[in-house]
Design a protein that fits this description.
The complex is a heterodimer of chains A (about 110) and B (about 110). By secondary structure, chain A is mainly beta. In chain A, about 0% of the residues lie in helices and about 45% in strands. In chain A, strands 2, 4, 5, 8, 9 and 10 form a six-stranded mixed β-sheet that branches. Chain B is mainly beta and about 110 residues long. The radius of gyration of chain B is 13 Å and the shape is globular. The chains are: A mainly beta (about 110), B mainly beta (about 110).
Chain lengths: ~110, ~110
C-alpha cells in the first residue's frame, strides 16, 4: 500500500479482555515503531523494531503488553487483560531505515477500555 | 529528567507574527532532531529535520540547533491560522538503544 495501515481504526473492549492491534508498514521500510498517545498528551514510546535485530521493548509499560513483527513486515501489538488506563490512540510508524529518516505514521487505533 | 522537554502551551500568536517553539533534550550524543506537526485528531507529519548546529530554513519554517546547550527550536514566520496545531519535537536517543523519542508537544494557536 501507499502508506502505513493500521487496523482496527477503533476498538472498544471490556476491562480484562485481550486486544490485538495491527500495523502494516510501507513496503521496504525496515524500522517500525509503536507509540501511545493519551488525550492531549505527547507520543509515548512503546517498542521499536529495526530489521532483524532484537526489538527495543524498553517503553512497554507492563508485561501485559507485547509486540511482534513477522517477516520484517506486519506488526501486531497485543494488550492482555486490558485496563481503563490503557485507553489511548496507538500509533504505528515506519521509516526506510533507522534514526535519520522521516517517520511515516498510520492513522492510529483508538482503543477504549470500558 | 525527561528525555525531550517542551512547554505544553497553549502558545497564542497573532496572525502574521513569528511563532517560536522550543525544545530541550537530555542525551548529549543525540544526532538527529525533528519537528512534527499534529492537527487535532490526525497523525503527526514531519515538517523539519536538522542534524548539525545552526539554522535550517524551509519556506516559512526555520529550525535551529545548539548541541552545546542541548536546545532545538522552530520558528514559523508570517504565522497563518492553518499553522494552529500541536508541534512535537523528536530526538534520537542512545539511551539503551538508538530510537526516536518525542516530547509532549506545544499547542500553537494563531489568532486571526
Amino acid at each position: 500500500g501507499a502508506g502505513v495501515s493500521q487496523s482496527p481504526s477503533n476498538k472498544v473492549t471490556e476491562k480484562g479482555k485481550d486486544v490485538e492491534l495491527r500495523c502494516d508498514p510501507i513496503s521496504g521500510h525496515t524500522a517500525l515503531y509503536w507509540y501511545r498517545q493519551s488525550l492531549g498528551q505527547g507520543l509515548e514510546f512503546l517498542i521499536y523494531f529495526q530489521g532483524n535485530s532484537a526489538p527495543d521493548k524498553s517503553g512497554l509499560p507492563s508485561d501485559r503488553f507485547s509486540a511482534e513483527r513477522t517477516g520484517g513486515s506486519v506488526s501486531t501489538l497485543t494488550i492482555q487483560r486490558t485496563q481503563q488506563e490503557d485507553s489511548a490512540v496507538y500509533l504505528c510508524a515506519s521509516s526506510l531505515k533507522a534514526l535519520s529518516e522521516k517517520l511515516f505514521f498510520g492513522s492510529g487505533t483508538q482503543l477504549s477500555v470500558l | 529528567q525527561k528525555e525531550v522537554e517542551q512547554n505544553s502551551g497553549p502558545l497564542s500568536v497573532p496572525e502574521g507574527a513569528i511563532a517560536s517553539l522550543n525544545c530541550t533534550y537530555s542525551d548529549r550524543v543525540s544526532q538527529s532532531f525533528f519537528w512534527y506537526r499534529q492537527y487535532s485528531g490526525k497523525s503527526p507529519e514531519l515538517i523539519m529535520s536538522i542534524y548539525s548546529n545552526g539554522d535550517k530554513e524551509d519556506g516559512r519554517f526555520t529550525a535551529q540547533l545548539n548541541k552545546a546547550s542541548q536546545y532545538v527550536s522552530l520558528l514559523i514566520r508570517d504565522s497563518q491560522p492553518s499553522d494552529s496545531a500541536t508541534y512535537l519535537c523528536a530526538v534520537n536517543t542512545m539511551n539503551r538503544d538508538d530510537k526516536i523519542i518525542f516530547g509532549k508537544g506545544t499547542r500553537l494557536h494563531i489568532l486571526p
